[in-house]
Amino acid sequence: MRAQKRGSASANRARRVRTRRLTPADAEAIARLEDETYPAELRAGRQALEADITDADFDDCNLGMGLFDGETLVGFFLLYYEPDSGQLFDYFGVRRPADLVAEECLYVADFIVRRPYSRYMWRLLADSMNLFSGYYGLPMLAFSAQSALDRWLARRKAFARFGYAYAGAQRFELEAPPHETFLVRFEPSFEHANAAAASGAGLRVEVVQSRLGWRKLASDWDALLRETPDCTAFQSFEWQSIWWDHFGADSRLWILVVREGQNVRAIAPLRIVRTRYYGRDKRLV
Predict the structure, then answer these.
(1) Per-residue pLDDT tens for 161-171?
(2) Are 108 and 144 a contacting pair, CB within 8 Å?
(3) DSSP label at 197?
(4) Helix spans in the chain (H)
(5) How does DSSP classify residue 112?
(6) What is the band of 1 on the pLDDT scale with cuts at 50, 70, 90?
(7) Which residues contact 257 (CB under 8 A, 6 or more apart)?
(8) Are 139 and 187 in contact (CB under 8 A)?
């Protein structure tokens, strides 16, 4: 009878557990999980979390995903798109390395799953990966205290399952306590992406949202353009790239790509811009 009750409770929990994107309204719940997990000096706090998520929402780079049991937050993967990895050093007051090459990246601000829900970590990661699939190919970076490095090492297999390989952690000194921090890095496994693409049958649509992903389309872009009736040089990859460098700073890439296996069959180059509509900020494609 007890085993039956435990099984029933587990089934009920499974039905209640779900994921959704994080919003600024979740900042208080995120802060509570941080309080349970970290010492005081490593907690961001509700106000900072709410400000960060609000800014990320405004810039359309909030990729955070929450794990919920009913309406209760029990885990989260707090992730942002960052067009310049050098900014991360400025955020944390870390001196930029002299040889730093600024690059687009995905920044993991935090990753917590309460122990009773650890079995759902795979679901959280899988749904997170689907959310930022348009940024696949970018490295994933996180700053970590020495005490949290073991957590990142323990997650290597989980990240590898979804196409990211652990590439190591680099130590940096800080002027204030704890006087050191570590930059953890995961690199995308392109073999993983290619295998997934090759296994897909029929036509599928993917969204490219990073400059790196756009650059990878260069040869396909111009090859398709040459087959497009009434095309002009102004539609070429080179021309569009130059235009974007000078006039695209206030918008985000949103390029739809139709693939058949690994072959590109069509490209719809779009962008998302912010506009005022009846006094409110709106996204316009």
Answers:
(1) 888 999 999 99
(2) no
(3) H
(4) 2-16, 27-37, 46-58, 86-91, 121-131, 149-154, 156-161, 190-199, 211-215, 218-226, 237-247
(5) E
(6) low
(7) 205, 206, 207, 208, 217, 264, 266, 267, 268
(8) yes
Pairwise CA distance, residues 103 & 184, whole Å:
15
Among all chains, which residue has been given the structure tokens 């190919």? 137
Mode of pairing for the β-strands spanning 17-21 and 251-260: unpaired
CA distance 251 to 256: 16
End-to-end CA distance of the chain: 57
* 124 close to 77: Cβ distance less than 8 angstroms: yes
CA dist 102 and 278 (Å) reads: 38
pLDDT above 70 for 282: yes
| Residue 36: both structure tokens together | 């349970």
- Cis peptide leading into residue 139 (ω within 30°): no
Residue of 20, 66, 210 lying closest to 134 (CA atoms)? 210
pTM score above 0.70: yes
Q: What is the Cα–Cα distance from 206 to 264, expressed in whole angstroms?
A: 10
Give φ, ψ of 155 to 5 degrees. -90, 5
Q: Which 3-state string (H, E, C) describes 264-280?
A: EEEEEEEEEEEEEECCE
What is the amino acid identity at position 199?
S
Alpha carbon 141 to chain centroid, angstroms: 10
List b or e across 76-87, with b for residues whose CB sees 16 or more CB atoms inside 10 angstroms.
bbbbbbbbebee
| pLDDT tens sequence across 90-147 | 888 888 888 888 889 999 999 999 999 999 999 999 999 888 888 888 999 999 988 8
